[in-house]
Structures are given as C-alpha cells and as structure tokens.
Write a structure and sequence with these properties.
The protein has about 220 residues and is an all-alpha fold. It is built from eight helices and no strands. The radius of gyration is 17 Å and the shape is globular. The relative contact order is 0.14.
Length: about 220
C-alpha cells in the first residue's frame, strides 16, 4: 500500500488500520525503556498515516490550518518547528520530575495518599502533552488522534492503562470543550477529569509497572 488511496472509503480504512498500528507502537514503546520526545510523537503520527497519506506522515505541516468547530487558530506553519522544540524541552523537564514515580509505585511502604498524588502527577503530564499537541496542531491531519495516543504513551510508561477517549455525539462536545477551556482559561482540570473517567472505565486491575528510561 505505497500509493495514495483512490477513494474516501479506502482512505478511512487505511487510517483506521494506521491507528491500530500506532496504538500497538505506543504500547510497545511504553515498555521499551526508550526516551520519550517529540521525535516519538512524530513516529506515532507516521504510524497512523504512512499508508493513508505518506507525504505528511510524521512531518510537521507546511501550511496554515483552521480547526473545525473551534475558535482556536493554530500558530503559523513557520512557527511549528520552534514551538515543538520548546514543547520538547518542557516535556523533558516534566518527565524528569516524574523520576520518583517508580519508588512510589513499587515502594513497599507507599500509602494510598502517596499513590494518589503520583497518579495525578502522571495524568497531569499526559494532559499537558495532549493539549500541547492540539494547541500547536503541528501536523496537516491527525493531530487529535496523535495527541490522544501520546497521552496514552505517558500513562502506559508510568504503569497506568491506555484509555479510549470517545469523541462522538455528546462526548465529542465535551472533549472539544475541555481543550477550549485550556486555550481560553488555561484550565486543564476538565481534561484531567476526562482522562480519569477513561481510566476508571478501562482499569481492570492490571498490575502497575514503571518502564523507566534505561541509561
């Protein structure tokens, strides 16, 4: 499947297969001990679109965009690379701050309060990364899908379960509103609540395991 799809149906099929492929990549990468960076985010995007839209797969956009049903205007395409580099620096700082997570998750004397604080710290980084991607909108297509998978990468790296954010009907409106709330008021709490709801729905007692980066 090296050529572009010829019909809308074929495009949707290839994109659906790409999301499955990217989800598997995220799960494997979370357990790989490899560092997470914006290069990883581009790799996720490439997994989604390499067969559906190979010319944009894993590459930052070279055109300006408008987001359907959103008042947010993404930055000019000429700013994307520098903005993502800055976001990468912020990401590394946030991930470094999570280095104590392993001791809390696996500590024999960890209490419920410490665990709750640890999980919240992980969810906050996942929410931050999710919004960082959707705000910059670095790719021509698939920014939302890539952002949701990137958030799952953080969750799974630090022992939680990847979630499925349902974005149809009323759930789609809620999802859009959570992102707008951050854009307008810098209020990340609704997105954090959305992620927690996803965790409550998906969590089935899977043992927690922290896949730290190997030096």
């Amino acid at each position: 499947m090296s050529n572009r799809p010829q019909t809308e149906e074929e495009l949707q099929t290839r994109e659906a297969i790409g999301v499955i492929r990217a989800s598997r990549f995220v799960r494997k990468y979370a357990h790989s001990h490899k560092a997470i960076s914006m290069v990883t985010i581009c790799a996720i995007h490439k997994k989604i679109f390499k067969d559906a839209w190979p010319e944009i797969a894993g590459k930052y956009r070279e055109e300006n965009l408008k987001i359907t049903h959103s008042e947010h205007l993404p930055p000019h395409h000429s700013e994307v690379a520098s903005l993502m580099a800055k976001r990468d620096e912020e990401l590394q700082s946030k991930l470094n701050a999570l280095q104590t997570v392993e001791g809390v998750i696996h500590g024999k004397h960890s209490n419920e309060h410490a665990l709750a604080e640890t999980f919240e710290a992980v969810v906050r980084v996942a929410a931050w990364l999710h919004h960082a991607i959707t705000f910059v909108h670095p790719f021509r297509e698939g920014n939302g899908r890539t952002a949701r998978l990137a958030a799952n990468l953080i969750l799974e790296r630090y022992g939680l379960v990847g979630i499925s954010v349902k974005i149809e009907k009323e759930n789609k409106n809620r999802y859009r509103q959570t992102l707008a709330q951050i854009d307008i008021m810098n209020d990340v709490e609704p997105l954090i609540s959305l992620i927690y709801d996803g965790l409550l729905e998906r969590y089935d007692g899977v043992p927690l395991k922290y896949y730290r980066v190997k030096k």
